[in-house]
Amino acid sequence: MTTQLQSAEQLSATTLLRFATAGSVDDGKSTLVGRLLHDSKSILTDQLEAVEQASLSRGQEAPDLALLTDGLRAEREQGITIDVAYRYFATTRRRFILADTPGHVQYTRNMVTGASTAELAVVLVDARNGVVEQTRRHAAVAALLRVPHVVLAVNKMDLVDYAEPVFAAIAEEFTAYAASLGVPEITAIPISALAGDNVVEPSAHMDWYGGPTVLEHLETVPVSHDLTACHARFPVQYVIRPQSAEHPDYRGYAGQIAAGVFRVGEAVSVLPSGRTTTITGIDALGESVDIAWAPQSVTLRLADDIDISRGDLIAPADDSPAVTRDVEATVCHVADQPLSVGQRVLIKHTTRTVKAIVKDIPSRLTLDDLSQHPAPGQLVANDIGRVVVRTAEPLALDAYADSRRTGSFLLIDPADGTTLSAGMAGASFAAVAEAVAPAADDDAEWDI
């Protein structure tokens, strides 16, 4: 079973990468994605023909590769990305799930959606404009969401005569900013998405750069899925009780393993009640197995008849998360309506949804200098801030730094079900950044 687990882990680590693109308006995100798909031969002939026809109808001689991802009518009319565009493609070395996210400030919420499951973020910067406020915002969101790898793609190098000093200055500024946020790995690559320089093929115009192309980096960046090291967590989604002649006493708890590994015979706790029992059986795809791991959907059978329902969390008895009614977290506010102190909300954590009230908003982040604006009273759309929420029922949360799945939650408007904020429990990225900032290496900014 150990060999089977390791094989699944290795396969996941070497064949699939989830990544997101981000950047300010007109930095060339959709063109980069289109160039990646085109030059890696990951688009169909009829798709390319449709793009060529659409480009000709707009008076463009060459195909506009951005149209491969900008599918909404409003996006094509305005030449911008509005919604998150997901694309699936593959090379001989790796499979990819790509989220092309919008650049406008009012669509930062979409960037949060696209990057929430990403293992790598490509942040584009226009070489003519350098690092701007929206660049900092996207770097902050990537750090907040604990995206482990960030690529700085300095685009439109053809418009600055492929000048190395321009690239070097932008890379130095962005690297210092991202490192102060606690981003663990930053790779800077000079590119021209329109001309294809350093996207899939190395550029003939930048012999001063000796690092990887964008695709080469995407194919080789290490993505670790150490399933055995994760804190095992199983949110209960459904209680299976057929009470049939064939299964008169069957009682199983179905759901998707959020993290870690569960084994038959293991002692577990059921939260928030804290009752302990033992796993007597695991059913997966209609068969009994001895071991199961994330992200498998399984049914657990337990030794004792405990009152368990949807929203409860099953975890190892010796490695259970803390149960609390006071949630301290960093949130990115995504709704048009503000989030205010004293506001009643719903908090959705894994499969559990409970009533809550916003007790305090201690601070709001200022992106320009990473300072904290104390006691803002409320958060408006696209604000990032700290909140304290008091729940009506206890929740079993991990710190987001330990588990992106069981450390995250949503704040919801109880009146109409609108998502208000995306939350990450525990320390903010600013606190993490303070701990790692002294270790930043100014000499390791990019590969030359």
Describe the secondary-structure layout.
Elements: H1 2-15, E1 16-23, H2 29-39, H3 45-57, H4 73-78, E2 85-90, E3 95-100, H5 108-115, E4 120-126, H6 133-144, E5 149-155, H7 164-180, E6 186-190, H8 214-220, E7 234-235, E8 238-240, E9 252-256, E10 261-263, E11 267-271, E12 275-284, E13 287-289, E14 291-293, E15 297-302, E16 313-316, E17 322-333, E18 339-340, E19 344-349, E20 352-366, E21 371-374, E22 378-379, E23 384-397, E24 408-412, E25 419-425, H9 429-436
Parallel strand pairs: 1-3, 1-4, 4-5, 5-6
Antiparallel strand pairs: 2-3, 7-16, 8-9, 9-15, 10-14, 11-12, 11-16, 12-13, 12-15, 17-23, 17-25, 18-22, 19-20, 19-24, 20-21, 20-23, 24-25
Helix pairs in contact: 5-6
Question: What do these coordinates show?
Answer:
This protein is of the alpha+beta class. It contains nine helices and 25 strands. The protein has helices at residues 2-15, 29-39, 45-57, 73-78, 108-115, 133-144, 164-180, 214-220, 429-436; strands spanning 16-23, 85-90, 95-100, 120-126, 149-155, 186-190, 234-235, 238-240, 252-256, 261-263, 267-271, 275-284, 287-289, 291-293, 297-302, 313-316, 322-333, 339-340, 344-349, 352-366, 371-374, 378-379, 384-397, 408-412, 419-425. Strands 7, 8, 9, 11, 12, 13, 15 and 16 form an eight-stranded antiparallel β-sheet that branches. The protein has a six-stranded mixed β-sheet with strand order 2-3-1-4-5-6, sandwiched between helices. Strands 17-23-20-19-24-25 form a six-stranded antiparallel beta barrel. β5, α7 and β6 (186-190) form a beta-alpha-beta unit. α5 (108-115) packs parallel to α6 (133-144). The longest helix is centred in the middle third of the chain and has 17 residues, at 164-180.
